[in-house]
Amino acid sequence: MMELLTKYFPEINADQIEKFKHLEELYQDWNSKINVISRKDMDYFYEHHVLHSLGIAKIQRFQPGSAVLDVGTGGGFPGIPLAILFPETEFLLVDSIGKKIKVVQEVAKSAGIHNVEAIQLRAEDVKPKFDFIVSRAVTTLPEFINWVGKNIKKESKHELKNGILYLKGGDLEAELAPFKSKSKVYQLSEFFEESFFETKKVVHVGL
To answer: pTM score > 0.70 for this model?
Structure first.
């Protein structure tokens, strides 16, 4: 399945390829102990989890030295794949469920991903500020922004304004109505040709 990643991210180097390869084995092992990914979805691990997470990188490439928060990371998505792709960016992955954070910590350690810190924490209790906050559809966007709006750095150094990069599907018109002037929706089908991505989107909300 590495062909799937190198097809869309031809710049990844040998070290990154090894880390990505190692992920499936690690998640299969942890999934047998703690169900962090549905059994059915493990058959499509690279497409549904790794490549989906990396969809954010098609919208914004993170600068070296920048800081990214992944809220409600679950088993480590989108944070773990993004951390492999951007080794000079610092990632904080938080989730309120301790056993999921344990998996993330062990996966990062075993795969040699050194730019990840994983903490059991509710989004509302995160104190530091970040360039971007990423997530995979943990709640409605208005509620999510209410949780984490306080954690965005004011000074932007990326093409996009600092804010939220949110992986979500479905009709987002009502959710985005309060942020119409600050948001843009990107269709992942414009970047990835697999049918899984036909309804998948990345939403950027500049804050």
So the answer is: yes
